[in-house]
Write a structure and sequence with these properties.
The protein is of the alpha/beta class. It has ten helices and 14 strands. α2 packs across α8 and α2 runs antiparallel to α9. The chain is globular and about 55 Å long.
Length: about 270
């Protein structure tokens, strides 16, 4: 009886050790690296969906270039997410208070913002341009002096206008979004709108009956959009790797051509990496 019990115990111990080794091997495999092997939280992504073709509402759905880019990046990085339209100013508040994980809304990377927020690598090159009626005499930024200029509040378009007309100049009209700024131009309340090229060029293309044109000023500096993150964000490295990956594997170019109908200038973008 004693001998039989000892052998049974030894057999049970051997089985237990075998199961332990197998379990250890399985754990190592699960945690051996790669985005898909990590347990990741669902991210809250916020935007201001009033900036076609970058982000806008199509019924109750948010669509646009930024939407497709953040989807591709987060899929590559292995994150689940929800995208929420909150508006321009609330976007900054949510990120600063860490109620949101990512802000994507044609947000220019600049030194002032980098004091408060982190940014991903750039994913889009942009430049501000001037939107005016077809019969306007305005031909450059310098011609905006003495004119009434409509801008979206808190944007680099506002900064460009202030650089020409002066900060807090009464001739700069600030609006919640560029749609309202353009409406002000159309009703005669402004002589020009200063905004990102993608926005004004898309508006002119889609609204030929409005008889507007876009003015390019070569003195306006090029700028880059990035995904804005709370300061100290732990997901920045994952996002940066994913952005590089979708540029390298052609996904970025496919999205760009779908939205803008032309090839992206990847050389300028990759210089920022």
């Amino acid at each position: 009886m004693k001998k039989k019990t000892w052998r049974a115990a030894l057999f049970s111990l051997a089985i237990g050790l075998l199961m332990l080794v197998s379990a250890c091997g399985s754990t190592e495999k699960v945690n051996s690296g790669g985005a898909d092997s990590k347990e990741k939280q669902k991210l809250r992504v916020v935007t201001d969906a009033a900036y076609a073709p970058m982000e806008s509402m199509d019924g109750d759905k948010i669509v646009g270039f930024d939407v497709d880019i953040v989807d591709a990046v987060l899929k590559e990085a292995g994150y689940d997410y929800e995208l929420v339209h909150v508006g321009w100013d609330p976007l900054f508040v949510e990120l600063k208070s860490k109620r949101a994980d990512i802000g994507i809304s044609s947000i220019t990377i600049d030194e002032d913002r980098k004091q408060t927020y982190d940014f991903s690598l750039p994913y889009f090159e942009s430049i501000n341009k001037i939107l005016v009626p077809e019969d306007s005499s305005i031909q450059s930024g310098a011609d905006l002096k003495g004119k009434t200029v409509a801008v979206q509040n808190g944007t680099t378009g506002q900064a460009v206008a202030e650089g020409i007309l002066g900060k807090n100049n009464k001739d700069i009209k600030k609006f919640e979004n560029n749609v309202l700024a353009i409406m002000e131009l159309l009703k005669g309340g402004a002589d020009a709108v200063v905004a990102d090229n993608a926005v004004v060029e898309e508006y002119v293309k889609n609204n030929p009956n409005k008889k507007l044109k876009v003015i390019t000023d070569s003195s306006f500096p090029s700028e880059f959009y990035g995904m804005m993150l709370p300061k100290g964000s732990k997901i920045k490295e994952d996002l940066d790797k994913a952005i590089k990956k979708i540029v390298e594997n052609g996904t970025y170019a496919d999205i760009y051509k779908k939205v803008f109908g032309s090839e992206p200038n990847l050389q300028e973008l990759e210089k920022q990496y």
